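Saturday, quiet lab. Running sequence design on the structure tokens for the scaffold JK sent over.
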């Protein structure tokens, strides 16, 4: 009896998990590397993204390296990681590269999305 219940419940569980996750098509963007708060590298990169129930995973392919970004908004405080290391998420102005607050974001002027660890400071901007 218990085996038959499990047999019928398993497809429902799999459907629920699969229905709440998706992969977006790869797209082009701009990637930026900062060192000591100064722009070190800038260029075109490939952005791959996957979302699942509050978890966001992004890979930035830039100059032969892959930067793995992770963002989990399901828990408090929000968990942010860069290449598996806890990171700080923040925004930069896309023209002057100054650090800006979320409250100063402007409609129609997308910021750079940035992830910073002790050793690495990576930002990206979608072309969409």
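Result came back. Writing it out in full:
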């Amino acid at each position: 009896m218990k085996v038959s219940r499990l047999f019928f419940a398993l497809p429902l569980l799999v459907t629920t998990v699969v229905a709440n996750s998706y992969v977006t098509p790869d797209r082009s963007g701009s990637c930026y590397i900062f060192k000591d708060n100064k722009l070190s590298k800038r260029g075109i990169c490939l952005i791959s993204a996957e979302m699942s129930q509050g978890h966001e995973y992004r890979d930035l392919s830039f100059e032969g390296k892959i930067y793995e970004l992770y963002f989990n908004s399901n828990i408090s405080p929000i968990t942010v990681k860069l290449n598996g290391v806890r990171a700080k998420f923040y925004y930069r102005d896309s023209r002057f590269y100054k650090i800006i607050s979320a409250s100063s974001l402007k409609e129609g002027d997308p910021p750079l999305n940035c992830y910073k660890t002790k050793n690495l400071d990576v930002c990206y901007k979608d072309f969409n």
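Notes for JK: The first strand starts at residue 21 and ends at 35. The first helix runs from residue 2 to 19. Ask whether to fix the surface positions before the next round.
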